[in-house]
Design goal:
α10 crosses α12 (182-196) and α11 runs antiparallel to α12 (182-196). This protein has a domain at 136-229. The chain is an all-alpha fold and 229 residues long. Helices cover 65% and strands 0% of the residues.
């Protein structure tokens, strides 16, 4: 059996993906994406689930997007159901980059509310890319159910996902401004601000919203009542 140079390059690249040095893994992922080969798909997905370095994971995702969606999407959908949080997160992230709406069924209420913040954030980003026409309002309602969750980075991710849906989020945000939880109310107000003024900084918007909630300023964003802390 003749071993071609392409076969040798493939072997080196696959070995490189498992190297202990992140720089080598990064170069290997770049090489795999530069010369796509269906033989790489399983190893790329396997590596995504355990790769500790962000930049390497991003390159692995890029390499997967270089392969036919008909081959990668079914494998990624299986990963979305993995018990490993990183596997779920990276699979959802990669599906958002591929953008094949056949992956939409993977965006479930469970994935949007995953206990792991990184998984949930990946699901939010994927959802706004993959949502079919006509289902944006239903998605907005599901996303709004996560308002008030997590630290600033998580809240910003959710606000960005909601704002990306456009005006369909207005009813869901308006309802959230009456929530008895001040965190939910403030997050909804901040997201409303970002919808109106995309260039407004999130930190400024959230701090302003907290003041509105704490003071119960009448007439602000639909008449927020006083919320006792």
């Amino acid at each position: 059996m003749t071993i071609t140079r392409q076969d040798m390059d493939a072997v080196r690249a696959l070995r490189g993906l498992e190297d202990g040095r992140s720089s080598v893994r990064l170069r290997a992922a770049l090489a795999v994406g530069t010369t796509p080969d269906p033989r790489f798909i399983d190893k790329l997905i396997e590596r995504c689930a355990i790769e500790p370095e962000f930049y390497v994971r991003d390159m692995l995702t890029w390499a997967l997007t270089r392969h036919p969606a008909s081959l990668t999407v079914p494998e990624l959908l299986r990963e979305v159901r993995s018990e490993r949080a990183r596997a779920r997160s990276q699979a959802l992230h990669t599906l958002s980059k591929i953008g094949d709406r056949q992956a939409w069924p993977a965006i479930t209420r469970a994935s949007l509310s995953d206990a792991d913040d990184e998984v949930a954030r990946s699901a939010w980003r994927a959802a706004v890319v993959l949502v079919p026409e006509g289902e944006e309002s239903a998605l907005a309602t599901m996303l709004a159910a996560q308002l008030g969750r997590g630290e600033k980075e998580t809240r910003l991710s959710l606000s960005r996902a909601l704002v990306a849906l456009g005006e369909v989020i207005v009813p869901a945000l308006r309802a959230a401004t009456t929530d008895p939880d001040p965190r939910v109310c403030a997050h909804a107000l901040a997201t409303q601000r970002l919808l109106r003024e995309p260039d407004a900084g999130f930190e400024f918007a959230i701090e302003e919203a907290k003041r509105v909630v704490a003071l119960g300023v009448p007439g602000q964003e639909g008449g927020v009542g006083r919320v006792d802390r």
